[in-house]
Design a protein that fits this description.
2 helices; mainly alpha; 66% helix
Length: 56
């Protein structure tokens, strides 16, 4: 599962970054209607990845 989570996290990060590069609204403080869900997904997956439990 860890690798799948990492893959989804990286894909979401790339998707958000690509959108943000081309969207002047998202380049400021508030994402646009299209960018908001992209950012939300990226943020949720980043939190999940950073807070995952690692096996000893």
């Amino acid at each position: 599962m860890g690798d799948d989570l990492h893959t989804r996290y990286m894909t979401a990060a790339q998707t958000w970054a690509a959108h943000r590069r081309g969207c002047t609204t998202c380049q400021h403080d508030t994402p646009c209607k299209v960018g908001a869900p992209l950012y939300e997904r990226f943020s949720r997956l980043q939190d999940a990845y950073m807070n995952r439990r690692r096996s000893p």
